[in-house]
Amino acid sequence: MSEAFVTLVTNDGYALGALVLAKSLRDVNTTRKIAVLITNEVSEPTRNRLREAFDVVSLVNELNTHDAANLALLGRPELGVTLTKIYAWKLTQFTKCVFLDADTLVVQNVDELFDRPEIAAAPDVGWPDCFNSGVFVFVPSAATFEKLAEHAVSTGSFDGGDQGLLNTFFDYWPTAGPEHRLSFLYNMNANQSYSYKPAFQKYGHLVKIIHFIGQFKPWHWARTSSGRVYAQTQEAPTHSEFHVQQWWNVFDRHYSTSAP
Ligand code: UDP
Ligand code: MN
What we know:
Blueprint: E1 3-9, H1 12-27, E2 33-38, H2 44-53, E3 56-59, H3 68-74, H4 80-84, E4 96-100, E5 104-106, E6 120-123, E7 131-138, H5 142-154, H6 162-169, E8 188-189, H7 190-195, H8 197-203, E9 209-211, E10 222-223, E11 229-230, H9 241-255
Parallel strand pairs: 1-2, 1-4, 2-3, 8-9
Antiparallel strand pairs: 4-7, 5-9, 6-7, 10-11
Helix pairs in contact: 1-2, 1-9, 3-5
Uridine-5'-diphosphate binds next to strand 1.
Subcellular location: Cytoplasm
Cofactor: Mn(2+)
Main location: cytoplasm
C-alpha cells in the first residue's frame, strides 16, 4: 500500500513554495511519499530542484492525453490552472493521498490524515459550509478523474478556482460525517490567526499545517540582511509575520547555501 502527499506547481514562483513544503514534510518525519504535479511552464533548473526534494515529479500535460474528458477540457482553456489540480486523481500508483497547496507549510507530523476517507477537508474561513481546497484527503481513481473533468465542463467552477469546482462535485461534504471534516489545525489560514489573536494565543501551539492564502505569499516578503522578514510593499500583506518567518526558517535550514 502506497500513500503520498501531493502538491501542484505550474510555474517557477510556486515551486519555491513546493520546495519548502517538501522539506517541511521531511522535517516532521513523514513516512509517506511526497509527489508534485508540474506543467510545461516549469523551467528545467526548477524541475531538477523539485526532483531532489520530491519522490515523484509528475508532468501533467493535457495535450498529450487522449481520453474524452481531456478533449472536452481543451475547449475550456479558461479553466486552466484550476483544473490542473484534478490531475492529482490520476496518481493511481497511490491508494490514498493528501493534497497540499504549494503555499502550505507542515509544522507537525500529519500522517494520521491517511486514516481519513475521501473527501476530508477543513471548512473555508470565508464560507464554512464550503471546504477549503488547500488541504484535502482523496483517493486517486481514473474514474473519479473522468467524472471531475466532465463536471468541470458541464458545471464549471463557481469561483473560477479549484475550490468552486471541488465543492460542487463533493457536494455531500457539509453534511457528511465527522470523519470528513478536518480540524482547522490542519489548514490554519495564516490571516485568521492574525484576526482572531486570542484563539491563536490559546491554540496556536497545536497548529499542524499553516496555509498562506491570498496573492501575497511568504516568498514575496522582503528580508533584512540578518534574515528577518519585513513587509516592503504598499499592498498590505495579510499574513502574520510570525508565520512567514516560520516559512523562511525552513527555507534557510535547507536552502540558505544553495538558493533555488
Ligand atoms: N498554483 C500554481 N500556479 C498558479 C496558481 C496556483 O501552481 O499560478 C497551485 C499551487 O499549488 C497553489 C494552488 O494551486 O498553492 C492554489 O492556489 P493558491 O494557493 O494561490 O490559492 P489560495 O490558497 O491563495 O486561494
Ligand atoms: Mn493556497
